[in-house]
Write a structure and sequence with these properties.
The protein is built from 4 helices and 18 strands. β13 and β14 form a beta hairpin. By secondary structure, it is an alpha+beta fold.
Amino acid sequence: MTEAPARRTPGTPCWVSLIVHGLTTTQEFYGSLFDWEFLPGPDQLGPYVRGLLHGAEVAGIGQLPPDRHLPIAWTTYLASDDADATAEAVRSCGGTVAVGPLDAGDAGRLAIASDPGGAVFGIWQGSDHLGTMSAGVPGTPVWNELVTRETSMVAKFYQTVFGYETEAVLSADFDYQTLQLAGIPVAALHGVGHALPRDRGPHWMTYFEVADTDLATARVVELGGRVLQPPREASSGRLATVADPEGAVFTLVRPSGSDAFGR
């Protein structure tokens, strides 16, 4: 198991979190799919648990208030040394800050924001809780990717706010840019044009590593989820896009090798 580093370089995806209506049933789904166990987390935003794999924190799941009807989706959190300054940069660059910045107990300080295209992401200034503490094994987040209409305009936003360098994949029919920190790819922007789902709009996609994409996809269905894109081969590995019982979409991947996703 690869231990995550202590401090996260600003801009690094450091945590993923999901807010749902049925906290208990969602724990059962992800616990069965990824072998996660759960411990209570800070409850400033309502009931909240952290998913653990072999004792290491990998993701968070919270519960929506009964009267709130928000889209159910995984949220990618990007590391910051100063959540307030990052939130101000988001606003000044054409984005929106919907929640915070606010303290999550002793764990850290957070904000929920969206880029100029409307894709939602989190900002996390870690204190006691730095983020995902396990990587490189099945059941852990392995990659985060913004799915948007086209990358050129939104790339400028993320470059300015988080200081990324970008590297485009040169292809006439593939609009893809990696976001890099100190020369290392940490996330990506994927422009899909008219293939962007109308019911979702631009969104950040979380990739979870699995040992066998086909078996994990079948397990999703057994547990009450559904398959949006069946298993397929890609340059990064074998992928499948699925949704949990409440509709939160994520990607399963068995990485093709140690160089997949910049590892």
